[in-house]
Amino acid sequence: MKLVLGRDDLAAAAAAAVRETGTEPERLGITPVHKASRGFVNDSAADICEVAIVTVLQAVAHGKPVLLLPVTTLGRHQHQTLVTRGKLSVADVEGRSVGVRSWSQTTGVWMRGFLTEQYGVDLRKADWTTYEGSHVDGAKDPSWVRRAPQGAKLPADFLDGRLDFGIMGNELPADDSIRTAVDNARETAEQWSRDQGFIPVNHVVGVGERAAADHPAAVLAAYDAMRSVLTAKEERGPVPLHPVGFEALRAAFTKAAAYALEQGVIPRAVDYDELVERTCAALDVPAARLGG
């Protein structure tokens, strides 16, 4: 069974649990972990794979054989990811240029959702530029989104002044002139999560339909092992950073799916229960077995 998990502790626990069921695990060393998503979704190149929440939604919407193992490997606040320079603020997004690595990037979907829901921004009134396509074959950017020229890079375009705003997470360059477009972004993000009751989840764990049907005991053992690691390390706070289980992830998936549909990231609505039912059917277990 081929595994792609970015965190060493989760990978070690999942591999040991899979091995105990009589299935031999193989951890694929793909870094950064999002580079494994395309092969997993389109070619079943991995059996259990860390994927972005929006990648899961796109995969389901496009009929890919991808299921959800409800484990959060990365949850984080997102309001700080919209950055600018000079005197611009979130109130100036309309009519300005904004770059994002990919239209389907989960960080971008969350941040654009905040722009429309909290700040009343009409996304079509901004000049959007993307630098990569989706991980899911068949997914396309909306017609009103422009693709940067081949070889262009978001951080360079932003620092060189070709973009007024950028949505950047891990790719954010170190430069003292960069600041968040949202005032008091950290505090705003924390208040959003308290009000909503959940963290904007970035990465979860996907499982291939064939792997789930052929090795259900191994998949369930991996889930149990990862759940044990995360629950043992979870810091106390008003909102858990790593929710585990179908019900714990319901609110984040539902909100992300609504944002993705509104932004043209997915071609149809994806109901969370569709994911739950498909996963449980493949593994032949009730939803309660996976925190439902």
Task: Produce the secondary structure layout.
Elements: E1 2-4, H1 8-20, E2 26-27, H2 37-43, E3 48-52, H3 53-61, E4 66-75, E5 82-84, E6 97-102, H4 106-119, E7 127-132, E8 145-147, H5 154-159, E9 165-167, E10 179-180, H6 185-196, E11 201-208, H7 209-214, H8 216-233, H9 246-262, H10 272-283
Parallel strand pairs: 1-2, 1-3, 6-7, 6-9, 7-8
Antiparallel strand pairs: 3-11, 4-11, 5-9, 5-10
Helix pairs in contact: 1-8
Can you describe this structure?
With 292 residues, the chain is α/β, with parallel strands linked by helices. The protein folds into 2 domains: 2-76 and 199-290, Periplasmic binding protein-like II (D-Maltodextrin-Binding Protein, domain 2, 3-Layer(aba) Sandwich), CATH 3.40.190.10; 79-195, 3-Layer(aba) Sandwich (D-Maltodextrin-Binding Protein, domain 2). Helix content is 39%, strand content 17%. It has 10 helices and 11 strands. It has helices at residues 8-20, 37-43, 53-61, 106-119, 154-159, 185-196, 209-214, 216-233, 246-262, 272-283; strands at residues 2-4, 26-27, 48-52, 66-75, 82-84, 97-102, 127-132, 145-147, 165-167, 179-180, 201-208. The strands form 2 sheets. It has a 6-stranded mixed β-sheet. The mean pLDDT is 96.
